[in-house]
Amino acid sequence: MLQTIGSLSTPFDTLSKCPRNGRQLRPAPLCHAQVDAAYQPGLAGLEGFSHLILLYWLDQSGSTDLVFTPPFERGLGAAPRGVFASRAPWRPNPIGVSVVAFEGFDGPGRLRVRYLDCVSGTPLLDIKPYLVTTDCEPEATMGWLEPHATCS
Ligand SMILES: C[S@@+](CC[C@H](N)C(=O)[O-])C[C@H]1O[C@@H](n2cnc3c(N)ncnc32)[C@H](O)[C@@H]1O
Question: Which of 39, 45, 119, 151 would bridge with 5, disulfide CB 3.0–4.6 Å?
Fold first, then answer.
């Protein structure tokens, strides 16, 4: 079973204030990942990683429709898209993922991060180091999202 390990603090206090993705706003605002005391020993060795992968629970998701028309395609006659071909927050297991820049600690268990797109208070599930040797695919294609690169 999943357990939350902390929460995310962002400048976005409602869903409507969240950017569509974490790289839409430039400069990217400072955010924080606060890890609960019980899990803080697991942060040992995190210094030196420039980027992290954060996994979190999109706790304000509503619908779990498996097929939908994304807001930025409405009215354009676009084909319906499957949730697993999208980054939509409404999904059977509403797990969100972000690759964030990591700027160190502002206090015990309090990580300075940028490039989040979630509402403040979103529950944090996990932290992993981003590995350029493993996680980077410069030639990756984006399917139906290719023309919407700035909207994804
Ligand atoms: C397109 S989703 C991408 C989420 C994540 N970065 C991912 O790729 O899995 C981003 C949108 O999710 C919505 N959102 C943010 N925080 C949320 C939360 N706690 N629960 C449900 N929806 C949320 C906002 O509307 C935001 O613009």
Answer: 39
3 state SS for the chain? CCCCCEEEECCCCCHHHCCCCCCCCCCCCEEEEEECHHHHHHHCCCCCCCEEEEEEECCCCCCCCCEECCHHHCCCCCCCEEHHHCCCCCCCCCEEEEEEEEEEEEECCEEEEECCCCCCCCEEEEEEECCHHHHCCCCCCCHHHHHHCCCC
Residue 14 lies in a domain: yes
Owning domain of residue 35? 6-148
The whole-model pTM stands at 0.95
Q: How many domains does the chain have?
A: 1
Structural domain includes residue 1: no
Output the CA 27–ligand 1 centroid distance in Å: 19
Which CATH number is 100's domain given?
2.40.30.70
pLDDT in tens, 122-136: 999 999 999 999 999
Give the number of the atom of ligand 1 that is nearest the alpha carbon of residue 116. Answer: 6
Q: What is the pLDDT of residues 64-118, one digit of tens each?
A: 789 988 877 777 777 889 999 999 999 999 999 999 999 999 999 999 999 999 9
